Amino acid sequence: MLTISEKRLVIACGGTGGHLFPGIAVAEAWTRQGGEVLLLISEKQIDTLATEGYDHLRFEKMPSIAMPGLFSVEMPGFLLAFFRSLRACRRLLKDFRADAVLGMGGFTSAAPLAAGKMAGLPTFIHESNAIPGKANRLNAVFSRAVLVGFAECAPHFGKGKPVEFVGTPLRPSLTNRPSREESLARFGLDPSKKTVMVMGGSQGARRVNELVAASLPAFAGAGIQVLHISGPGDYELVKPAYDASPSAGVLRDFCSEIQYAYAAADLAVCRSGASTLTELGYFEIPSVLIPYPFAADDHQMSNAKIFSVPGAAELWPQGELDEESFSDKILSLINDYERLADMKVASEGMAVPDASGRVCEVVAAALV
Q1: Domains and CATH numbers, the chain
Q2: What is the spatial distance between Cα 128 and Cα 151, in angstroms, rounded to a whole number?
Q3: Residue 329 and residue 320 in contact, taking contact as beta carbons nearer than 8 Å
Q4: Of 28, 48, 118, 287, whose CB neighbour count within 10 A is largest?
């Protein structure tokens, strides 16, 4: 194992759970080996919620700036904000005495990576998705090497930059799996019933939430219970449906201890962000993936295919779903025990449980 002791790593990981949770996972792995970490996050609500319980880690908030189109009237404002962030990051890296910079994706990573490169530090980006977004295509310019969560992503960065497959880091809180019985009891759910876990991801999933809410009477009538994590933005939208069908299950706006939700699930219904897929694989959960149809470059569809082709998940395009047939499709699947068993085995084969350690090894190798 390469030495990390006393080495200082800056991780830029704010904006979405898909960036933040893997960043925290790397930070935990780095500090366990005696290093120090500074995590740069955004000012979004999800970042504030997701960092609760990590008081032992140091976080700094940065303004979140999204890059507009090249000829957009908003481009001058973006450039001004970027250079302000760049100046602040250069000062921050100097004060922290950083040895390396790792960006987990998104434009929150751009200024720290550029500042790191200007300071002569080793810089890296991690791309979790099958297709990199425009932010990481830009971030690659400031990076010494690219680390990818899916091997299928590597060709998108061309041959001019070293690319290493490491998997997507799994947040440490998930590595100790609770029992199904303990998890169901935690949510007040019935251990004799099959459980569908619904999760929209850190930014929610309005259409998925609507479909599930409309299906609650059918689920309750069939003896199926739902553990529904709606996201803060859709909680009030979905709550009346649960008030009307109290036996259908449990609704939460956010779940900070998601390991209990995963351990309770017989089937997951969710979007197909890379971190979500990593966690589904680790917990060996059969899943229905409904890719967010407006994701950049339709990358969630590409992510979902990586799990659906080997049989770990079923891919249901959002545009093909409606309230009349959704509950029937879910009930048909969750009652197909042979199909679920096969999906569980396939899901387990998709996991890369040592991804955090792999990331640390690549960064540490540059500091020798």
Answers
A1: 8-170+353-365 (3.40.50.2000), 176-348 (3.40.50.2000)
A2: 10
A3: no
A4: 287
